[in-house]
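hey can u run this one w/ iron/sulfur cluster bound, need the structure tokens asap thx
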Amino acid sequence: MTLPHNIYIHVPFCISKCNYCAFFSHACAKPDWEKYTAGIIGEIDHWAEMLGKFDVPTVFFGGGTPSLLPTKYFAQIIEHLHSKFNIVNNAEITLESNPGTLDTARLDEFIKYGANRLSIGVQSFDDDELAFLGRRHNAYTARKLIDSALARQIRVSADFIYGLPGHNANKVENLCKQINNTGLSHCSMYELTIEPSTPFGKMNLTMPTNNEMADMYTAIQNTLNLPRYEVSNYANPDNECRHNQNIWDGDAYIGLGTAAAGRVFMNNVWYEQLGGGVKFEPITNDARAIEKVITGLRTMRGVLLAKDVKNVLNMEYAKEHNELVQINDERMRATDNGILVLDDLLVNLIR
Ligand code: SF4
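ok here u go:
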């Protein structure tokens, strides 16, 4: 019997590259959508041959800019998934999108073909900041897409970036107040990190200090109306991203498309997909358990202390440092203090 597998589909095309972006995506005026879709369909066939017909609780189209995908190809992929796997009732099907790439007619088509959750890359409500980040949209277009999506029977999330040069706790508080006014029930707040390979990496920017970043992080927690359920993610109860939650919990997932990662469970062995496609290699149970600790401790519900997880943890350290981690109901959670020093905490916790 094959375990359920979540499905991640990578769409690596964007209209242009943003100044901070180190994701696997490239600017491409006219992607060969037919060829790319045929590749994904071939990968679906491959996994169906390898694993048989398994349950699929979530499908996530990420990128890149998946909302550029012509809807007929989105429909083909969804239909093919249904034909090969058991997409469970009420499966969560998320489409990542960028404002300016999705008018209401196309949004309605994506919904008609199965999308029931839209994640919008808003990043900022300040036009100067959006230009600085290299985004192609302005705040008005972003607000319009949020409003259109919220008016439909789907779940809606938006991504924002904080910690830009010149940002401080007050600015981030203002951003959070604006987010509260949108009526969103899920948002992701990502700290700007400068990757050397990006335009920002070559600009010698003056970034906020660690203390200022910690103040901004606290300002978000104190101002947003949505509870934090993961280091960078906030949602009302039952509005969390189920796809990400499943993956953070250590459930199996398959990546489809160029550079898509996956963790596949086959014949009692965990496999790591090597950059998408159909290449994969086994990983040890300990390596898999360590991944679960790393992702689980970023969540407010913590990591389930199953046998494999306990095997890789220094439980004595955990018991002696309950100001950093706490154990309840068979789960280990990082405290607020623990989350602020999570990287160091993980070094001490993992054997
Ligand atoms: S739209 Fe997203 S994936 Fe594309 S370049 Fe910008 S940040 Fe990167």
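Residues 284-351 form a domain with the Arc Repressor Mutant, subunit A fold (CATH 1.10.10). anyway lmk if its weird
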